[in-house]
């Protein structure tokens, strides 16, 4: 088990199976030393635990937890192409989308769920640049979607 996966276990988490694509794309691709993930929904065992808009059917606190799940799914996607999460030199960028009720403006707080998980698991390597974007709707009526870009060390 990698050091990263050991840290996940210490946090009471385990790396899930990679979420299969919903359309014509790959969950993650590597280009040079970088891995780019597709947008990861908060799927758990192949299902969305919650659907709807944040600030309406979904609370900001629920959405923050869902963003953590998205980040965990993104790490699984990274591992699927990198082979070992210990190869992560740093998380470069996180982009998060929040399906938001018209008056909801707390997207950064929601995306803290993903950012905080990456920092907990990877330490300084998990600190990153980030965009938090409110959108009208996401695939499958998911409340949140997260993609990450990581730099790898040499194999």
Automatic annotation (TrEMBL):
InterPro entries: Endoribo_LPSP/chorism_mut-like, RutC-like_sf
PANTHER family tied to this protein: ENDORIBONUCLEASE L-PSP_CHORISMATE MUTASE-LIKE DOMAIN-CONTAINING PROTEIN (PTHR43760:SF1), ENDORIBONUCLEASE-RELATED (PTHR43760)
Pfam families assigned: YjgF_endoribonc
Endoribonuclease L-PSP/chorismate mutase-like domain ranges (all copies): 5-148
Protein name per its UniProtKB record: RidA family protein
Lineage: Bacteria, Bacillati, Actinomycetota, Actinomycetes, Kitasatosporales
Organism in which the protein naturally occurs: Streptomyces composti
